[in-house]
Amino acid sequence: MLLIITHETPNHSNKLRELYKSLDARDIPYIISRRCDPAVVKRKDIRGLIIPGARFRVKPYENQPELDLELYYLYHFPNIPVLGICHGCQLLMVYYGGTLQSYNSLWAGNNEVEFNLSRDRIFKGQDENENLHFYFHELPVAPPHSPGSKTGVREIAWITKFRDGRRHACAFEFVKDRVYGVMFHPELGDKSRSILYNFYDNVCSSSSSSSSSSSSSESSA
Fold it and tell me: Rg of the chain over CA atoms, in angstroms?
């Protein structure tokens, strides 16, 4: 079961309608939570969190009560997989110590993305370069990463030509093999929807198996 965390109803900005349709097409089970619900926290069948797009902008240096919902579930489900899409990716970047580069104008439309295909748990089946849809003001910027370090935020996909004509990261692995964020909307493309399916099939299932194995080992001990 996936838990989709959002205050919002579907609209042009958040692409929730397309997200739901993509999951329904594969009969992937999900529930939607629009409030901090202790009953949801007690559920034992939640295998992954999706933090989707939203109309409001993340402000990293200000207190934003509207972000309490996402933070509530990140706190109560600290070890299960997470996929942040657009707004969700921005929130995760701030949550994991990065920053946001703010722009006054919206950057929207289809643009070329280069994938790191070695991250096959999430990008299996994608081409090295694809045109994907973006809709955002703030570009996430990963915190400094020490060469050779096994910790830290990793860049795993790049816009080949951003506003300044340069290559910039647009997808990140925040926790190895478990927490991911993408600034594009995979739910809008027939091919890119496989990223959602990879998250469920490869990331959530693998994490669930690891947790079960751990629990079994602890019980045997």
Answer: 17
> CA–CA distance from 61 to each of 67, 70, 94 (Å)?
13, 17, 9
Helices then strands (H, E): number in the chain?
7, 11
| pLDDT confidence tier of residue 58, bands split at 50, 70 and 90 | confident
Measure the CA–CA gap between 185 and 21, rounded to whole angstroms: 13
Predicted confidence (pLDDT) per residue in 77-93, tens digit: 999 999 999 999 999 99
Cβ atoms of 5 and 70 closer than 8 Å: yes
How many Cβ atoms from other residues are within 10 Å of residue 209's Cβ?
10
Within its chain, how far is the Cα of 164 from the centroid? Answer: 25
> What are the Cα distances from residue 186, in Å, to 10, 15, 16, 40, 195?
16, 10, 11, 26, 7
Residue from 57, 12, 27 nearest 185 by CA: 12
pTM of the model: 0.90
Return the axis-axis angle of helices 87-95 and 68-76, rounded to nearest 10°: 60
